């Protein structure tokens, strides 16, 4: 039965959440788990700072350059678009694609600056639509108890508060909201069980586009 499921396309899984929600840890734990059970899996993260566009984004995040708000928004989107051929190829080959941040971060972080949500969504229209979005839910207050935010541009409590409010508006049926304050192993089990339950169903459904 599982060998039949594995002949279908790969599953596109995205992790979203505010900074310090534990999203990257969960992403890694899921990738390691899928590998341990013999699945083909690719671990991607956005922004992908390794490309030329990603390098500009990195400079912006570190504050060494300034970019106009719309311009940086489009660069973040372009950074996702430049990965689409690879993502599609992986999914076609039946590989799980696990992504740390995606278009929803794009909308949440720019709309948090006061821009229109519909405008923010537009550049990402047409990207592969994730089968599942795990949202690591944490209050800004709890996130701060995990140690102070880093030094990057968006890592300020007031801004993260607004990001969380926009995420709230973006949630839809394929979002699985996870309580990020639970024990990390407990969260991991919840995530992997949800994924394994839905894997076969998704692998037989054509990939949609955002
Ligand atoms: P990370 O490497 O996951 O810590 O992400 C770096 C920062 O960039 C983080 O504060 C979230 C933010 N970010 C991620 N994607 C986007 C995006 O598409 N647009 C904007 N404006 N910010 C983003
Ligand atoms: Na960060
Ligand atoms: Na979806």
Write the layout of secondary structure elements.
Elements: H1 2-6, E1 12-17, H2 23-36, E2 41-45, H3 52-61, H4 69-81, H5 84-92, E3 96-100, H6 103-111, H7 117-121, E4 132-137, H8 140-145, H9 157-170, E5 175-179, H10 184-203
Parallel strand pairs: 1-3, 1-4, 2-3, 4-5
The structure holds 2'-deoxyguanosine-5'-monophosphate (DGP) and sodium ion (2 copies).
Kindly describe this structure:
The chain is an alpha/beta fold and 210 residues long. 50% of the residues lie in helices and 13% in strands. It has 10 helices and 5 strands. The protein has helices spanning 2-6, 23-36, 52-61, 69-81, 84-92, 103-111, 117-121, 140-145, 157-170, 184-203, and strands spanning 12-17, 41-45, 96-100, 132-137, 175-179. It has a 5-stranded parallel sheet with strand order 2-3-1-4-5, with helices on both faces. The site of 2'-deoxyguanosine-5'-monophosphate has 13 residues, from helix 4 and helix 6.
């Amino acid at each position: 039965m599982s060998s039949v499921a594995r002949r279908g396309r790969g599953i596109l899984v995205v992790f979203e959440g505010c900074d310090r929600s534990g999203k990257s840890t969960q992403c890694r734990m899921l990738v390691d788990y899928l590998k341990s059970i013999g699945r083909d899996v690719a671990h991607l993260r956005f922004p992908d700072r390794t490309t030329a566009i990603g390098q500009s984004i990195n400079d912006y995040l570190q504050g060494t350059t300034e970019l106009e708000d719309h311009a940086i928004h489009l660069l973040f989107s372009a950074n996702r678009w430049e990965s689409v051929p690879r993502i599609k190829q992986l999914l076609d080959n039946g590989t799980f694609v696990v992504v740390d941040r995606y278009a929803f971060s794009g909308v949440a972080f720019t709309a948090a600056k006061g821009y229109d949500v519909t405008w923010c969504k537009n550049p990402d229209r047409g990207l592969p639509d994730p089968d599942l979005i795990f949202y690591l839910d944490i209050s800004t207050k709890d996130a701060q108890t995990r140690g102070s935010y880093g030094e990057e541009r968006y890592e300020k409590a007031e801004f993260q508060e607004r990001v969380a409010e926009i995420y709230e508006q973006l949630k839809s049926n394929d979002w699985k909201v996870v309580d990020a304050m639970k024990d990390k192993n407990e969260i991991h089990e919840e995530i992997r069980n949800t994924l394994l339950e839905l894997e076969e169903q998704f692998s037989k459904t054509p990939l949609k586009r955002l």
